[in-house]
Amino acid sequence: MKRQEESDYTSEKTFSKKDFTKNRLPKGEFELCVFENCNFSESSLSESVFVDCTFSNCNLSLAHLDITAFRDVKFSECKLTGLRFDTCTEFGFSVSFKKCKLDQVRFYNMKIKKTVFEV
């Protein structure tokens, strides 16, 4: 029987048109996953790990990112208002943004020299 604090591993799965505002995305590790047209507004992604994932046309406004790991994650045409990337895990932090709405986003003390911001 799996203990509740253990996290799940999900690989190569597509999440399409999911609303995670009422039922959060299960805490875990996501590798090579695609999230398209999903709503994460004000939901928690805390303590999850995203590796080589893509978020496309998603709303992540005011989502909680405490101790969240983003490693080679691409955001495309997403709404990212009020995100606090400065609360994410710094180890391996690597993101890119293409045509995203990035209002009031915080990267305080983050190493983002190689981060791509494409309009």
What's this model, at a glance?
By secondary structure, this protein is mostly beta strands. It has a single domain (7-119), classed as E3 ubiquitin-protein ligase SopA (Pectate Lyase C-like, 3 Solenoid). Helices cover 0% and strands 29% of the residues.
Largest sheet composition: 6 strands, parallel
Order of helices and strands: EEEEEEEEEE
Strand content: 25-35%
Instruction: Specify the number of helices.
Output: 0
Number of domains: 1
Strand order of the main beta sheet, please?
A: 2-4-6-8-9-10
N-end to C-end Cα span: 47 Å
Name the structural class: mainly beta
CATH superfamily, by name, is: E3 ubiquitin-protein ligase SopA
Number of strands: 10
CATH architecture: 3 Solenoid
Shape from CA axes? globular
